[in-house]
Amino acid sequence: xxxxxxxxxxxxxxxxxxxxxxxxxxxxxxxxxxxxxxxxxxxxxxxxxxxxxxxxxxxxxxxxxxxxxxxxxxxxxxxxxxxxxxxxxxxxxxxxxxxxxxxxxxxxxxxxxxxxxx
Length: 118
What we know:
Layout: H1 8-33, E1 42-47, E2 51-57, E3 64-71, E4 76-80, E5 86-94
């Protein structure tokens, strides 16, 4: 989406908002599904040299999984290709969008590029 390098402070502020939005999606999912066995996963950030890894942590502390990656230079949202790196096939959204990229992710991670098949 964005080729320009953003101010690191602006990226951090938007990333904090993005993490809050992802947490809200997680909370809404648990409520919508009526899960009562545990509280919703907690969303945290692991920082790397180029990417911030957005992580879902279960309440027991026994399971962690990658939700998405965010490019710390541009704010681009990337689908996880594994634990260490994003999928190399394209940007899914941007944390500087009006909705923080909410229409490009769900409670499990980034949406597929071509969208769902019906």
